[in-house]
Amino acid sequence: MKKLIVLAAASLACSMAFAAEGQKEGKAPTAQQKLMGTCNTEATGKKGDERKEFMKACLSDGKKRQQERMKSCNAEATGKKGDERKAFMSECLRKN
Fold first, then answer.
1. Chain-centre distance of CA 3, in angstroms?
2. What string of pLDDT tens digits covers the 96 residues of the chain?
């Protein structure tokens, strides 16, 4: 049992170190991380099964919205290629 606790503590310490390292490098959060943060904020005050159900629905809806934005921006980007397309898609996905 003690070995399990020590192993869990070491694992937690390593994961926190990697997370801190990623933040030091100034990496922007991914779309999924932003969505998790938004849903987590909206779930304030909910507990247990109610929170689980809310988070599941919120994350599912967020993924659907992201897919719709991708389809829309992709349709608008028709005819663009290379760096022009990358820049357009990046801007389009940010504003929607």
1. 33
2. 666 565 555 555 555 555 655 555 677 777 788 888 888 888 889 999 999 999 999 888 888 888 888 899 999 999 999 999 999 988 888 775
